[in-house]
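Action item from last week, closing it out:
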Amino acid sequence: MPSSVPSFAELLGQCERSAVHLEMRDSYAATDRFEAWKRGERIDWEDRESWWHPYDQLIADTVDRGVVIRRARVVSEPVSEYIRWEHYVTHANVSAGEQVRWLPRRQATTIPLPGNDFWLFDDALLRVHHFSGDGAVVEDEITAHPEAVKLCSAAFEAVWERAIPHHQYKI
């Protein structure tokens, strides 16, 4: 049965001003790239063809249209192995045009945070990620519910204000 949830590319394609992403887990489902990193394999950042993916191009094209894309990550410290890897591969996100910041979880105590990671498009439409215990995405939910949008927008902005820019966050 086909999903009624629009793809990420569709949602980003309809975006006119901003897309923000809040991530709050210390690990997500393992990927081949993560497993390779754990084995000691590293990316040759000078060889863009070897690491530039369709996602990176989608972000770059969207930023070129004038959409501001920001990603904030709330992380426990010391960081998990997965977050250490995420920090490493964030070079690709930044190269594509995303602005990325990191907030140590202990600095988020007074921020009312939603229970799930999300994308918020143009301060109007939410794509909420629901995960299993091992970090695999179980489903995505799309909502424009005003209370949910307001909570998620305020949470993201509060995290963003306190967070450390990617190039300054040392792991």
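Closing note: The beta strands are 18-23, 68-75, 99-104, 118-121, 125-131, 137-143, 164-165.
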